[in-house]
Specification:
This protein is α/β, with parallel strands linked by helices. It is built from 12 helices and 6 strands.
């Protein structure tokens, strides 16, 4: 019988060593290009310093593009050189550049004018390992603004990038959530089970929308007592908050009965499911519409466990988002 000199475990170990090394080489080479583009941008800005007219700037980039294309090939169009110039202006301190982000990441980040928002997206891209496409979606759906809106302050805010790690549910819960990736029509009539199935089918994208730290536990999670059975639509665990997160879906307008039911779910998990090291569970009622007065008078004033958030099935415009934020802020002001 022939001896097996190499088992699967051993080969996978060797494979991981080589794959890791290749990834490091790719990352290092990629960041070297990011630094090179920054240096090119810096040189262009300095060259234009005393001749900052539009005509001179355009002529300089055209000439530079022509020469660089001849020497280095494609990739040095006037447009790309303009991006490099903008890159330096947006990130004037070279030491702040992150070797975990690609040039494509930075191309997107340059579009974010708000400096705090830009820093937020940088931090989250690194911590959550966002791809370029994922980063683009977060920017497009105003992830930063929605997170701040959930705190009730849009214009003047504490820098959320300094909150590491997040300690409270308010640090991660958004309002509204944007679920355009489900492909459901805003005006269409569908059941809560349809919404739930769509979220399961696009679980990875939903986890990205929920934010960092979420791990899926189960759907239609049953709890039973006194010969009665109740089913929680979706259950997650957040390893940053260190607590269970219970989500109930409501395709209609939120009622006080819905809130009361979630209170029962949260109480049950608090008394029966928490283990040593867990924080108190939180519940999120994800609804198509809600009346802030109903929410305010149904929940106790010291509520820290139950949250209500609207969902949107399309990408909002900035005006629509501002309207949502203003409504949320007014509700919080009325509460106080």
């Amino acid at each position: 019988m022939k001896n097996q000199l190499m088992d699967t475990t051993f080969y996978n170990q060797i494979k991981e060593i080589l794959s890791s090394a290749r990834a490091k080489v790719y990352s290092a080479a990629n960041f070297a290009m990011v630094e090179a583009y920054w240096e090119i941008g810096k040189s262009i800005v300095e060259k234009q310093g005393g001749n900052a007219t539009a005509e001179y700037g355009t002529s300089l980039l055209k000439e530079l593009s022509k020469q660089m294309t001849a020497d280095f090939g494609k990739g040095f169009t006037v447009t790309n050189l303009s991006y490099m110039r903008q890159f330096y202006l947006a990130f004037p301190n070279r030491h702040t550049l992150c070797d975990k982000l690609s040039w494509s990441h930075y191309r997107l980040l340059m579009r974010v004018e708000n400096e705090r928002a830009r820093q937020f997206y940088i931090e989250e891209s690194v911590k959550s390992n966002w791809s370029v496409r994922q980063l683009e979606r977060q920017i497009t759906t105003f992830s930063y603004q929605r997170l701040l809106a959930s705190h009730g302050n849009y214009d003047v805010v504490e820098d959320t990038t300094k909150r590491e790690p997040a300690k409270t549910p308010e640090d991660v819960i958004r309002d509204p959530y944007v679920l355009e990736f489900l492909g459901l029509e805003q005006s269409a009539s569908f059941y809560e089970s349809d919404l739930e199935q769509a979220l399961i089918d696009h679980l990875q994208k939903f986890l990205l929308e929920l934010g960092r730290g979420f791990s899926f536990v189960g759907r239609q999670h049953r709890i039973s007592f006194d010969h009665q059975h109740f089913y929680i639509d979706l259950v997650f665990y957040n390893y940053i908050l260190k607590c269970f997160v219970l989500i109930d879906l409501k395709t209609g307008k939120l009622t006080h009965q819905d809130i009361g039911q979630m209170q029962m779910y949260v109480n049950y998990y608090t008394r029966e499911k928490m283990t040593e090291g867990d924080n108190a569970p939180i519940g999120i009622l994800l609804c198509a519409d809600k009346n802030d007065s109903v929410v305010r008078y149904t929940l106790p004033e010291d509520n820290k466990q139950i949250f209500t958030s609207k969902y949107m099935l399309y990408l909002p415009t900035e005006e629509e988002l501002q309207k949502e934020i203003t409504a949320e802020r007014n509700a919080l002001e009325n509460k106080s």
